[in-house]
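Standup notes
- DV: blocked on the single-chain target, sequence here:
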Amino acid sequence: MSDKRHRRRRKQRLPEETIQVEIESLSAEGRGIAHVDGRIVFIEQALPGETVAFKYTKLSKNIAEGRAVEILQASTDRVTPKCTAFAMCGGCSLQHMDTTAQLALKQKTFEDHLQHIGKVTVENLLPPLTGPLWSYRHKARLGVRYVRKRDQIMIGFRESNSAFITDTEQCEILHASVGFLLTELSEYMMRMEQKENIPQIEVAVGDNQTVLVFRHLESLPESDREILRELGIKHNLVIYLQAGSPDDLEALYPQEPEMLYYELPKHDVRIEFQPSDFTQINPEINRSMLDRAIDFLQLNKNDQVLDLFCGLGNFSLPMARKCAQLTAVEGSQVMVKKARDNAAKNNINNVEFFMADLYSDEIASAPWLKQKYNKILLDPPRSGADAVLRYLDKMGAERIVYVSCHPATLARDAGVLVNELGYRLIDAGIMDMFPHTKHVESIAVFVK
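- DV (later): unblocked, structure below
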């Protein structure tokens, strides 16, 4: 055995005994922090002020990770998790914490990132934007696995820090049309010949219907297809099969389903989407977020607006209702086409969509970048918008609203906008798009 393999195998050996510690503080991810034998230990499902018994899950020279197995003295912020699978499931990690404490943690994480990463201070810290706490998740990818030893189909999210699928009867954060159906869904699939060749179910819930997309690695016989049709009929579900790419869908039940959509009634907009398209998982927070962003932009009929990372037009189409002209840019040509289709179906004619890689230097010659915009909306992925910020400086936009799914990259970009490009950060706050999880959605408003 090589030294390298020996070291790797030795590193994997963890102490079997439990260790008692007092939890000193909480990490940004919601893990309890303690010190043992000179190491910092991050302990899942432990809260500040608690005394817990934990077991190591990872051990290195200076840092270790663990999981609480017994709460010896509980925090006043501790609550009983609603989900019976919470101890193992990686779908959400904060159900043991009171929701007020969850918001306080997310708010503190956001403020700390602004201060330490961006070196900026917000003039007005907004109250958290909140919505439903349960059954809020309208999009998900559920893992599926047939466990031969148990003769059972497992359906759900992965276990925390594991590739295994959580053994759960129902999911409390998934939309009820699917979250309360997991056990029966497993029973249906157990009857299928090809049950070992279905690794994933994509869930997409619109205002009009719930869609399940069954990813299959081998062709399904007619008997399997009939079982899935039965499922669709009984529970009023739309069933698709997917053998190839995410958009390569075969409608199974009904044969000609209508398109998924969600409505933004305050803005007279309906957005159609495919099950695999990116949409916000929490529609109630999405509607409130749109209203907040549009209010902060202070749109009027003279505005020239730029929407970067526009996707299907979630922000673009409502904003176009309130401005003179809107230019929207997205990195996927497929999404650009879908956004154009949505604009046409909503009879919105003052918006123009462009495809461009917003992380590439090639955008320097893009025609849309040579236009003037007085207001800008940014809604980038987790990697942030730093690559495009330098180009925005030349536009001299009076107002920028930045929506972020990752507070660290928002803080980094805020540092550039404030400390280098001459903007003020006048408003910022969190939006609880993902209750009971560590994820933090946020919004920030910059003015010249």
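- Follow-up: The radius of gyration is 24 Å.
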